[in-house]
Every structure is written in structure tokens, then in C-alpha cells.
Amino acid sequence: MTPQYTDVLIIGAGFSGLGMAIQLRKAKLTSFLVIEKGAEIGGTWWENRYPGCACDIPSHLYSFSFDLNSGWSRMYPRQAEILAYLKSCAARHGVLPHIRLNTALTEAVWDEAHLHWRTRTSSGETITARVIVSGMGALHVPHLPEIPGLERFEGPAFHSSSWDYSVSLTGKRIAVIGTGASAIQFVPQIVPKAAHLTLFQRTPAWILPRLDFEFSQRARRRFLYRPSSKWLFRTYIFWTLDLRAGIFLGSKLMARKAQEIALRHLHRHVNDPQLREALTPNYAIGCKRILISSDFYPALTQPNVELVTEQITEIREHSVVTADGAEHPADVLIFGTGFKITELARGVHIAGRGGVTLEETWRERMGAYLGITVSGFPNLFFLLGPNTGLGHNSVVLMIEAQVRYILKCLKLMRRRKKRAVDVRAESFSRFRSELASRLRSTVWQSGGCRSWYQDSRTGENIAIWPGTVVSYLRATRRVKSGDFEWL
Ligand code: NAP
């Protein structure tokens, strides 16, 4: 295969990769290639197709600021509608010809002599790129718990992110493991089909009501013909959500109010005191992702549903066994057990300056300057990298801020007639200490929980931005050229 050259190689065609590609094209920087491991574009919104899959951020904010959609059908968009929106954006902005599907990055090695990356893909081709932008996202490596006997299970078993629609759930005894953001969406959908559903919960979540509704034709027409109304609505949602950051950042009043709303929601739907107790979290709200659902609690009160809080100790051919010795029969096993976030660049060999690998650099702690770039890895940029996820607002806002920042770096390189840029080790460590001091007063440090937000060894939050979106927009508004080495 002939080696190829592209100026910018983008990894992934989800919200991040597409956002980057569209803005490159708008800036008339057309030497770029997007490689996508999946068979279609859409990233997480193509991979996750479980029943009830939807977003818990309102549609008018969970979209690109440069391509607002008047036609959203409801307040909280469902997976198919988000995927259709992403596909239409990609087509409208002319980036489809730049995308190569079924192609994963397997290796990227920095060539110090020529100041570019030599990469290899899953199809064996080599691509040389001056710049790599990773839009790989954090939530795509399924976490399957290591439970003794799992391989002995004789029925169908699958993870929420690879839902097996060929398996009929009608009249089956279903065992669901996990009660996170995905499970609370699919459980209410499958309860009516199941003969019996056993839900294994390790930690209860704080759940707020989901105030979802359909937009009337009139409202959609208003959004279409009066674009300012769309902007006003988006701005209103933005501020309402961004103010919620206080829950995470140490506001006792906001946290107390949010807990009250969640407890009222639980009490309204669950009368059984034992079930209520099992569903009441014993850690501070916001420490784990706050979930929103109005049909999860009602689903748990159905006669064919049983909530099990005992630890799972073993899986047998046709059952799940818990620590109290009880054996729960199951025909189908569904994992709603989340993703391995600490493995952001899992399976990809990335070697920067001096041959040092990203894996080695991140062995002690995963981190990146502004969540975007890592010292020793010139021209490698991350979208939604470490500590830039959000628990309270739309991540699309973070992606767009990062895309703008990367474009500024590219333009500065061109203006300075440089080929590469590497964040200085001192700037990187200064950012790390600022981040650590910001994190000190947050709920993730003191909330008394464990979640994928935290490094499994140190307990430190490595996933979420410890601030408002406004503060991140401020931090990324300008490229401080002194923080970088220009090569
Ligand atoms: P998750 O929120 O990490 O939940 C995983 C669940 O599996 C938790 O309840 C966890 O319990 C449980 N679990 C893990 N290992 C277990 C074990 N060995 N035994 C028993 N239970 C176990 O995963 P997810 O639901 O797939 O969601 C992941 C992320 O995707 C979310 O946090 C969110 O960022 C994103 N998401 C977003 C939306 C949206 O609307 N925007 C929708 C779905 C997902 P513990 O709590 O005890 O660890």
C-alpha cells in the first residue's frame, strides 16, 4: 500500500471529529482526513443504539452553535434524531468525502527529523500527518466486569453499547447488571416485555425528574422563522445548566436543593419503604453522574421487577448468584456496566519525542494541558481529553472551544512559519497544579463515592472539568504562545 500524506489526521467521526473537520473546511484548510473505526459516522450516537437511548442534555444545546436545528422534535433528543442531525451536518458542510470508515488508528510515532507523525491503521496502511487530532472520546471501550463463571452463561449476553436486537426479550427472564445512565434508560423499555427482570444495583444514583416534552409544530415554526428565538432558548438553557455547576463546586445550598428534588422524586414514585431505602444514595449528589429519568422508578415498582443489592459472586449456566447465596434465574444477561475511561488511547501505540509513549506518560496520572495537549507529543491534540468532560452542561460546548483553540494553534504555526508545537513541561505542570487546587473543594474529592470520573488508583477526578463552561471558554480563549515550544 502506498504511504499517504495529510496535513491533519482526525481520529473518529463523532461529534468531536466532525466538529473539527467542519471547522477546518470552513477555514479553507482542506488537507485533512478523518478515520473512523466504525462502519458509520456518529461516534457514540451510532454505537449506542439500546432501547430508550437518548441524551440528557436538551437538544437545542446539544448541537453545534454554527448549525442550529429548528426541527428538534423534543426537549431531550433521542439517539436516532441526534445521529440524523450529525449525518446531515457532515453532508451539509461537505466533509463526507474526507471520511474513511472501518479504519482505526493503531500506531502513531513522532518523526523528530521531519516534524510529522507516522501512523498506521487497522487496514495496514501508513499515513503521514503533520497534526493528529483525537476525537476518540472517552466512552467507547465497554467495561465488562470480571465475574467468576461469566463464560459459563449459556444464554445471550451483551453490553448496552452493542445491543443485540436479534435476541427476543419477550417472555424472558432478564438479568441486568448496573444502574447507570444507560441502564436507567433501557430498563423501563424492556420491563413490559420481560417475564421477569432482575436488576443488580451496586450503588444507587441520584435521579432527577426528566422534564421531557415534544415541541409543537408552532414552536418549531417559530424557531425556523425567527432564528433569534432559537438563540434565546439555547442561551436560556445554557445559563440554567451552567449555574448548576455550583452543585459540583462546593455550593452546599445548591447541593441540598438538588438532593431534596431527587428525594421527592423517589418518594413520589416508590411507596415501598424497603425499595426506597435501597434506592437512596449515601453519598453527596454530583459525586457520580446525576441521572435524569421519569420512568425508571415507576418501572422498578412493576410486579415483574426485582431490585437486588447483594454483591454478585458468580454466574452460572442459567443464573446469577449473589453473596447471600441466592440464585437468580436468567435467560438473558445485559451489562449496563459502563466504559473503561482510563483507557482513552487504548490499543493505540502513540510514541512522542524521544520515543516516550503516551501510555508511559499517563502511567502515573492521565492528564493534558487544558485537556488538549500533552508535553512531549507535538502536534497531537485531544478533543474531550482528560478533565474536560462535563456533568452539568453540554459537552458540545467544550468540543467547540477545543476546536477553536486547535485552529488558533494551527494558524499561529503558519504565521510563525513553524511546523510543530509542543506544550512546555513547566506549563503542563503549572496547569496540573491549578487543576489540583480547583479540584480540592469539589464534590469529587469529598463526596464519598467512586465512579468512572476518578482514577481507580488515586481516586482523583481525571474526567470532568472542575468549573463552569464559562470558565473553560475563558481558559481556552487565547493561545499563550509562551506556554509552547515552537518547532
Ligand atoms: P455508568 O454510568 O458508568 O454505570 C455503570 C453501572 O454499572 C453503575 O451502576 C455501576 O455501579 C455498575 N457496575 C459496574 N461494574 C459492576 C459490577 N462489577 N457489579 C455490579 N455493578 C457494576 O455507565 P453507563 O450507564 O454506560 O454510562 C456511562 C456514561 O455514558 C455516563 O456517565 C454518561 O456520561 C454517558 N451517558 C450519557 C447519556 C446521556 O444521556 N447523555 C446516556 C447514557 C450514557 P457503581 O455505580 O457501583 O460503579
In short:
By secondary structure, the chain is of the alpha/beta class.
Overview of the structural elements:
By secondary structure, this protein is an alpha/beta fold. It is built from 15 helices and 20 strands. Helix 1 runs parallel beside helix 12 (395-415). The mean pLDDT is 95. NADP nicotinamide-adenine-dinucleotide phosphate binds next to loops. NADP nicotinamide-adenine-dinucleotide phosphate is lined by residues 54-56, 139, 145, 160, 177-183, 200, 202-203, 289, 312, 336-339, 452.
Tell me the layout of helices and strands.
Elements: E1 4-11, H1 15-26, E2 32-35, H2 44-47, H3 79-92, E3 99-100, E4 105-111, E5 116-121, E6 126-134, E7 157-159, E8 173-177, H4 183-190, E9 196-200, E10 207-208, H5 217-225, H6 227-243, H7 246-249, H8 252-269, H9 273-278, E11 291-292, H10 296-300, E12 305-308, E13 312-316, E14 319-322, E15 327-329, E16 332-335, E17 349-351, H11 358-361, E18 380-382, H12 395-415, E19 421-423, H13 425-440, H14 443-446, H15 469-475, E20 484-486
Parallel strand pairs: 1-2, 1-6, 2-3, 4-17, 6-18, 7-16, 8-9, 8-16, 9-12, 10-11
Antiparallel strand pairs: 4-5, 5-6, 13-14, 14-15, 19-20
The structure holds NADP nicotinamide-adenine-dinucleotide phosphate (NAP).
NADP nicotinamide-adenine-dinucleotide phosphate is lined by residues 54-56, 139, 145, 160, 177-183, 200, 202-203, 289, 312, 336-339, 452.
Strand content: 15-25%
Q: Could you tell me the radius of gyration in angstroms?
A: 23 Å
Fraction in helix = 25-40%
Low-confidence stretches: none
Number of E-type strands: 20
The number of helical runs is 15
Largest sheet: 8 strands, mixed
Bound molecules: NADP nicotinamide-adenine-dinucleotide phosphate
Mean pLDDT, to the nearest integer, reads: 95
The N- to C-terminal Cα distance equals: 30 Å
